Q: What sequence folds into this?
């Protein structure tokens, strides 16, 4: 019988505790944006105020596929844990107690609304159509340039500020520290009867329209953090044609596939 994920977590917890006996090792649910929440391992080394959290689902999958690799997988896990602990950023917790220390390090993150509905109830946000703007505090140090902390409703209440003030200060901080720039983006182009291929396109509306051959529509149909930019017109045309007996549906299907391109962002 294959080892369950719960059993694998218990084994990983014991291994982590043996390797780092001074650390506090727990199994817990880690709340993340973009539908990436998971039950994993949290390791808080002695003297550190930031824990290491690890999603072990992929490693568990390797053991399920080949139980004989358990020892090798555990060794891989411990190596990853050691590396993560060595790279824990040094966070000054004082910056979270006074808003004046925070507002100059605010930044914004744009996420789709639908897969993040549950998490959005816990954080201040601003919704614009099907996307939401959330706010983070940059806690990067000289070695870690992408470390940040998500601002929660509880943190905002502690700061004694309103969502409107948070948004205004985040916009000001973003423009001062990380002003937006227009760049090409790497996407996966999906064409009829061809293998998907990576391409780079511009970010202007005209670039997206040219890539899909007309009007564009953006949708987030998957649990993963993937958006599709596509031309909705062939779908509408196909629905109309299907109600008319004078069209051959096989031919329409080919026409639909030929016209409708999608960009996976």
A:
């Amino acid at each position: 019988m294959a080892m369950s994920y719960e059993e694998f977590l218990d084994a990983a917890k014991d291994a982590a505790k043996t390797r780092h006996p001074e650390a506090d090792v727990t199994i817990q649910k880690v709340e993340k944006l973009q539908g990436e929440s998971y039950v994993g391992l949290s390791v808080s080394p002695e003297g550190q105020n930031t824990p290491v959290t690890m999603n072990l689902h992929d490693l568990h999958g390797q053991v399920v596929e080949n139980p004989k690799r358990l020892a090798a997988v555990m060794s891989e896990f411990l190596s990853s844990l050691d590396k993560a602990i060595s790279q824990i950023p040094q966070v000054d917790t004082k910056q979270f107690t006074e808003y004046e220390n925070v507002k100059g390090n605010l930044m914004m993150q744009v996420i789709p609304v639908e897969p993040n509905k549950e998490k959005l109830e816990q954080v201040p946000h601003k919704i614009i159509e099907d996307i939401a703007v959330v706010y983070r505090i940059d806690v990067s140090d000289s070695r870690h340039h992408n470390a940040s902390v998500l601002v929660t409703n509880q943190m905002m209440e502690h700061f004694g500020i309103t969502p409107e003030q948070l948004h205004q200060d985040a916009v000001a901080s973003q423009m001062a520290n990380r002003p937006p720039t227009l760049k090409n983006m790497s996407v996966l182009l999906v064409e009829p009867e061809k293998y998907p291929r990576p391409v780079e396109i511009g970010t202007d509306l005209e670039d997206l329209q040219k890539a899909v051959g007309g009007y564009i529509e953006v949708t987030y149909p998957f649990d993963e953090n993937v958006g599709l930019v596509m031309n909705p017109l062939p779908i509408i045309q196909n629905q109309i044609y299907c109600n008319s007996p004078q069209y051959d549906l096989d031919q329409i299907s080919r026409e639909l596939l030929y016209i409708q391109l999608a960009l996976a962002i």
Remarks:
- The first strand starts at residue 24 and ends at 30.
- Residues 70-86 form the longest helix (17 residues).
- Residues 185-264 form one domain.
